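Field log, afternoon session.

UNIT: design team B
ACTIVITY: writing a sequence onto a fixed backbone
BACKBONE:
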């Protein structure tokens, strides 16, 4: 297939571009580089442009006859979405609508959408399955929830079929250390914990130690970036075979606490994590764990890198490689 990857210069998108290329697909990356990196696009064609630029989208779709779209482009930080909701509604909703309208005009009928566990809000139970009530508590989660609703409406009205994959916590890096997590600023726990072994800045801040968990710190479900990519490959195959629109929760189904992440960071790096403790952050639930049983039973998806140490060892190798490159 010929696949358009929006946001393909970002963390997840760049890994997906490589995986698609390995599978023999023709890949075009479309990214405005506001959060991604040109040197992260290791395969296929790269086109710099914004989903807000309808002229650029028309040119892109006119020049390429795409079979499907994998849509990663968007803003992803929960805290920032609370401080600047306009950015999130513009990037995640207006930008997506522009993309979907270009797809309609050029009769591209298949899309895999990067959604999030944030659509569920504060969990009523764990692990969280697809039947869990959806009640997002921040603009980031709201934009992803609304996009899922839009996709359902576009399927009913226009026959545009989709698979929405609701990630819990993407983590890790490619085992060859060519690609990994690179955000500016970084907000994710695993890279921050690994950086804290280097004595960076003020070290790692742990927000809250009085949660209802065995060690008092929040528990989260981490999924390796390559296992995420495999789920996207299955979604594309499903749509290409004429499959219907679906949504799946995507995680390992097991949780690790902040303190456990710190312990593993120290193990894989051989260095001490410099930690300071702060108060709870508003809206942080005790546990966020996925029930990914539906995608396992439907498509046979199975994480290859299920252990936290595997995930963090790859992240550490990437961190070392990135530092070596300066």
């Amino acid at each position: 297939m010929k696949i358009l990857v929006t946001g393909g210069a970002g963390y997840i998108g760049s890994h997906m571009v490589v995986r698609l290329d390995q599978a023999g697909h023709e890949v075009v990356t479309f990214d405005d580089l506001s959060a991604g990196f040109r040197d992260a696009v290791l395969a296929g064609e790269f086109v710099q442009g914004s989903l807000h630029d309808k002229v650029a989208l028309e040119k892109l779709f006119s020049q390429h006859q795409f079979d499907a779209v994998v849509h990663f482009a968007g803003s992803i930080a929960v805290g920032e979405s609370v401080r600047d909701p306009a950015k999130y509604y513009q990037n995640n909703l207006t930008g997506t609508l522009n993309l979907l309208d270009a797809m309609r005009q050029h009769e591209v009928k298949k899309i895999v959408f990067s959604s999030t566990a944030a659509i569920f809000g504060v969990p009523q139970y764990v692990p969280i399955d697809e039947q869990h009530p959806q009640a997002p508590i921040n603009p980031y989660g709201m934009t992803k929830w609304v996009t899922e609703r839009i996709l359902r409406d576009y399927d009913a009205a226009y026959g545009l079929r989709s698979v929405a994959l609701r990630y819990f916590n993407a983590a890790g890096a490619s085992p060859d250390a060519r690609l990994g997590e690179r955000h500016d600023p970084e907000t994710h726990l695993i890279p921050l914990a690994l950086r804290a072994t280097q004595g960076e800045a003020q070290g790692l801040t742990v927000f809250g130690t009085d949660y209802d968990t065995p060690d008092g710190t929040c528990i989260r479900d981490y999924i390796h970036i390559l296992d995420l990519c495999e789920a996207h490959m299955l979604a594309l195959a499903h749509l290409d075979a004429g499959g219907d629109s679906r949504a799946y929760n995507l995680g390992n189904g097991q949780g690790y606490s902040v303190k456990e992440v710190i312990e593993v960071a120290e193990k894989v790096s051989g260095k001490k994590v410099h930690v300071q403790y702060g108060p709870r952050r508003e809206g942080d639930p005790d546990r966020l764990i996925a029930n990914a049983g539906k995608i396992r039973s439907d498509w046979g998806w199975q994480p290859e890198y299920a252990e936290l140490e595997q995930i963090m060892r790859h992240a550490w190798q990437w961190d070392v490689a990135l530092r070596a490159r300066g």
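LOG NOTE: The first helix runs from residue 11 to 22.
NEXT ACTIVITY: expression trials, pending approval
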